[in-house]
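Thiosulfate/3-mercaptopyruvate sulfurtransferase
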Amino acid sequence: MDESVVVSPDWLASRLDDPTVRVVDVRDAWEYDGIGHLPGAVTVPFDSYRDESDVDRGTLPGADAFADLLGQAGIDEGDTIVAYDDTHGVFAARFVLTAIEYGHEDVRLLDGDYSAWNREHETTSDEPDVEPTEYEADPLDPNESPLVDREAVEDALERNAVFVDTREKDEFEEARLPGAVRFDWREVVDDETRRLKPEDDLEALLEEHGITRDREIVLYCNTARRISHTYVVLTALGYENVRFYEGSLTDWLAADGEIETGPVASE
């Protein structure tokens, strides 16, 4: 697993004294305050970097709004950011994807979540002293971004792309993109450890679903949260031809895109 994308609790624990490693807690503020958090972590709640009002742009908050959030959290452009939540990493992965899209070069997901960390490492209720910065976002060029719009998705449907639906079974059967395969994002997580399954197991699991390195992969869910986790995992495994449909099924249905319904034989 590529440590420039996903890091273990031990990796992070050994670097907590490094001032350029910034830990971001994306849980609700009451969890950060009332339950505790990782030492040195700053709070950037999930709903603060998600705009539910702009369907055309998906749910990204906008470059200026995101830069303000990171500046208020005392983060510099050159810092190494490690994000975590307490939901197997799905909300933290959305933060990772957002930071990548707005040009932060070194942002990583903590393997596991708060509960996994808490089993072997100390937590605290002390808030760190934060000195705000003048963070400047540098959004990716559209040609370099993994995000694709509806037109690009329509084009990919004409090719041999594999469309990966990361939602639950009932959602998949209610409506899905034509030819999509269902790959519940939680399948990559070990229920006991709350961390990602071993790399060999992940590779085998992906292959079972037809998700292989030689294929163009397009991810979608409903509002681009769950695919963030799958995107980070695939990136950490070295998959290169992965696209991220930011508008996801919400955007597709709004445009009356073609869908399939009902169960499939493999389900």
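thats it. The beta strands are 6-7, 21-25, 42-43, 80-84, 107-110, 147-148, 162-165, 181-182, 217-220, 242-245. Residues 6-118 form a domain with the Oxidized Rhodanese; domain 1 fold (CATH 3.40.250.10). bye
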